[in-house]
């Protein structure tokens, strides 16, 4: 198998837990992000040595609970972040594969990886908003089957190995979408994607899931590792988790749970991240809560200055 690209190695094969940030970082409730501020935040994260910037895919502004997501097109958004940064990896967490043509997804991923100098990771999910599936005239009940079928075609298109591109060539009559990448673009399953852990272990380059209390998360990590032994021949593949974070001004404030995450001072946050690393987490994707009273610039700066250097084994692994 061909080696992975620089983004995957830096973010998921660093040999220690790495931190990423979900963007936009400073999006007001129910409003579009300020591009100038987001590019400034991206450059700050890049300077501090965060491993990755991520974004979500919300095709239509369909309310979910009390919130209506207002997000730019993810591949265009990440291209803007790529132009503003130099080393930090860029990823989707996740693009909704059943609502996108797989050849368009593959072409966008190949282009973004090339334009960013090998800095892209493709996270894919199955989607869960019934209204979106109806708008796109897709059957939500079939999204698991559609996900598997389209995954195989995207995987084939993103591979530098000629033999692996056979599925792509069968679909296109022998044509490539563009020049194949020099290295393998990592593909993550985000959430369950309506697949078994055994399928994900066999086909994905890693699994990204949401925050749970520590005992439950350790159980999920154990199930993931068991699935890897059974379906991936024992090959190590990274476990990634998201974390809603409300970082408090008081560095000594203890951690307390919030929905899908923590409210804590930086010392408790570091302790938590150390425990997650010990449990087998390779990367934590921080999602800054919009309920925080602190400006996103202050939070990202504190995380970069005070948290990254204190993580176990933290060392910058620059993209070359």
UniProtKB/TrEMBL annotation:
Signal sequence range: none
Q: Which superkingdom heads the taxonomic lineage of this protein's source?
A: Bacteria
Check the record and name the InterPro entries matching this protein: Diverse_substr_monoxygenases (IPR051260), Luciferase-like_dom (IPR011251), Luciferase-like_sf (IPR036661), Luciferase-type_oxidoreductase (IPR020020)
EC supergroup of this enzyme? oxidoreductase
UniProt keywords (A-Z) are: Flavoprotein, FMN, Monooxygenase, Oxidoreductase
Q: Which EC number(s) does UniProt give?
A: 1.-.-.-
Q: Membrane as a keyword?
A: no
Q: What is this protein called?
A: TIGR03571 family LLM class oxidoreductase
* Source organism of the structure: Acidovorax cavernicola
